[in-house]
Fold these 3 entries.
Entry 1:
Amino acid sequence: MCMLLKTHLAVGLAVAFYFLPHVQNRLAFVVIVLFASVLPDLESEILLDKHKKIKLFGMIGKNSFLHTYTACLIATGLFAFFAPIVALPFFLGYSFHLAVDAFSREGIAPFWPFTTKRASGKITPGGHVDYAVFSLSLIFAALMLIKILIQ
């Protein structure tokens, strides 16, 4: 298992709010970043908390193609060609999801199928560090939102 769903959403929100002053269609930007920040988990079990998980479409697991930068770059390239306004927020949400999962115990195989090398760390899903990342991401997102509102 990788990080909790709420951790991915909080990190996505922090990333979206950080870049928000530099985009024109702010609502669409935030929605796309948030969607892309959970997209890789749609094929596997989504962790709601340490003990609760749901399966949507997935039978594949974290070792699958959606948990690779290869998939991220292919999808981003397609968006850049066919829907350029979607490419940046999609890439940000998706790539930060993968970066966060790379620090989990299970990790990811970032450039599969070109290599099977895995990137992994020591973070336990639903553990103290996971909750710290969630909390700090929300604090950062709140600070970014305050900064945007007072400008």
Entry 2:
Amino acid sequence: MTDTKLIASLFDCLNQNQLALGAADEELSNWVEQHGSSDIANNVRGALETLDENLVFIRQGIAELTVSGSLGKS
């Protein structure tokens, strides 16, 4: 495995972790809101927007690293 492919694989795993944490945070914010603290739920959702904003860039970077690794460039 080339260094570039390894980096792409690592970033892909980190991205999957980030998505899982985002989903868990969303579930928790829904629960918090249902139990009477909409301010905290809104703060959590605001923080989750950062994950969403960075998602496209992260996926594009992973795709470029994957293609670069497939071409044997490192």
Entry 3:
Amino acid sequence: MTVTSQPNQYFNDVNQAIESETASLRELSLQIHGNPELGYKEVFAHKVLTDYLESKGFTVTRHAYEIDTAFVAEYASSAAVAAAAAGQKVKAVGFCSEYDALPGVGHACGHNLIAIAGVASALAVKAVLEKHNLVGRVRLVGTPAEETTGGKIPLIERGAFDGLEACLMTHPAPADIVYTQMLAVGGVLVEYFGKASHASASPWEGVNALDALITAYNGIGLLRQQTASTSRVHGIITHGGQAANIIPDYASGKFMYRAINVEDHAKLKKDLFRIFNAAAESTGCTVKITAEMEYKNVPHNELLAARYTAYTSDLGVKYMSRAAQEAQAGGSTDMGNVVHYLPGIHPLYNIVGLDGELDKDVTNHSYRFTEVAKTQVAHEATLRSAKGLALTGVDVLFEEGFSEAVKADFEKTVPHGGVNAVTKKLEALSAMNAGGCGCH
């Protein structure tokens, strides 16, 4: 897939700004990689990133929006400050950094690289604003806990992304894919409560919570026959009882459900909750369902995606055809919630090489990916992707009519009024669940 970009007069500024910081950015990445921290516990990463950004002239808000390991770093040119004081609109573009790790395997999703990609992109846009004293602002949002409950979700609700024309981020992978299918995902803890009894002497006195959980598990297996090929349901039993000779009075499991869009996801959620409640009813147990996360799918903003593809192609990236990209199975991310709120993109970039092919030996969430995420090749790929984001961000700020066209594409792609309407729809579905399941 070959794409040629339109000339960007700030290309050299972006390239120089990032290349001049390559050593310090690599040091940041390796520090975070060597100190993996789980979601909402990213104390070290939060400190080194905010200290670095402050040293580079950003106005930094640590522990932003009452989230201990979130931050916001902003820069406005003097021309932007003057324009705002005069009552003029000043456009702003945003980027995201992630920096949480996975339990057991560390940075097996390369969030050390995502951290510096966001920093590099923001640095480059700042350099353009500063050098040419253009009217514009750049904001980097440090977003914790993507791997668990989704730090971007409360940040959206509390205003971290308000006032942005677009928000961009990138993600390491075993291939360069702009048009990936990132699915909507929900996660729930399902708990069944029964009555304990001796499994041999008086089993009839018991109410078997494990039976309820197994009934639900089997029901999900049958449901899969009627779900779309783009939907997924997976789960584990987290508690099945204490001893074989005791009827379990408590059993629990964790389940995740995914779909290609919000509408399919809402239907799948409704079907699952009906199974969970029916399993309780059929066994005489009670059930409690606790929502742990709710990520939306990532719709493609055609203009942002095409511009990023063009710039990274100019930088040497080779892409599969769009059809081949869309055929690749994807995961899920809370960036989906962001791009349902305002225009944005979430491309994947290859940390293995530039051949345009999928490397099946290096998959996200594997020990091998953890090792590759600290290599020089991965670092160079990260900066290449960051340059593509930064150049796209510059176009959002300064190319006449571009941000307006991006917004129009967003409104066409996300026609339900953004994240607020979608959230209300999902909340309405939750309220339909019988039996006081405790989902929220």
